[in-house]
Specification:
Elements lengths: L2 H13 L4 H10 L10 H13 L7 H10 L11 H15 L4 H13 L10 H10 L7 H14 L5 H16 L8 H23 L4
Helix pairs in contact: 1-2, 1-3, 3-4, 3-7, 4-6, 4-7, 5-6, 9-10
């Protein structure tokens, strides 16, 4: 099954057959030509990790809806992608007849992916953020592919400026007491993710030549 078919199947299981057309449109957003990392493959990977962490979520449906919408609107030259994606989620779920509390929770979760900093006891937020950052613990070849894809999305940025900006993002992550918020994710991902961050930071900050 190709990844788009997998995603549509997952969407229909979540939202119902009547929402199939909406799901097709939503999945298509992740295939926009300017995307290199924030693609259908990233979304599919997130859904699989959410399944692994399902026992830690308070409302698994809300987390899965949030995953589908979290990068629905994505432009590298804007800083309000999460807010716009959250508004799209809230509007769409309301049109589907979802309960208002579900729409609000999904919107809140999407907004949370801007900083990946859920409050203690925010079980839904912890699962979503951990799934979004699970890529940081990828094996060496997959992590290299991830960093190349991120660089490709920012190909319009000069190399030196990209290196400075990327290093700042990684340092902010590395300074957190824990990269992950669920016990399961910390056990599975924390060590590998910190090793990847350290290696990439060294590469970004070592002078060429």
């Amino acid at each position: 099954m190709v990844v788009e078919e997998y995603l549509l199947t997952q969407w229909i299981e979540l939202a119902g057959e009547r929402a199939a057309d909406l799901g097709t449109d939503l999945v298509a957003r992740y295939g926009e030509p300017h995307r290199r990392y924030h693609t259908v493959h990233h979304l599919a990977g997130m859904l699989r990790v959410i399944d692994e962490l399902a026992a830690d979520a308070a409302d698994l449906d809300a987390v899965r809806y949030a995953a589908f919408f979290h990068d629905a609107i994505y432009a590298v030259d804007r800083t309000d992608n999460e807010e716009r994606s959250a508004e799209l989620a809230e509007t769409t779920l309301a049109e589907l007849g979802a309960a208002p509390e579900l729409s609000r929770e999904v919107g809140r979760l999407v907004r949370l992916t801007a900083a990946h900093n859920p409050a203690p006891g925010d079980y839904n937020g912890a699962v979503l953020c951990d799934a979004d950052l699970a890529v940081l613990a990828a094996d060496s070849s997959d992590y290299a592919a991830y960093t190349r894809a991120v660089r490709a999305e920012y190909q319009h940025v000069p190399d030196e400026l990209f290196r400075i900006g990327r290093a700042a993002v990684l340092r902010k992550l590395a300074e957190q007491p824990s990269l992950y918020h669920t016990t399961a994710a910390r056990r599975r991902y924390e060590s590998a993710a910190r090793a990847n961050l350290a290696a990439e930071l060294t590469e970004l900050t070592t002078p060429a030549g």
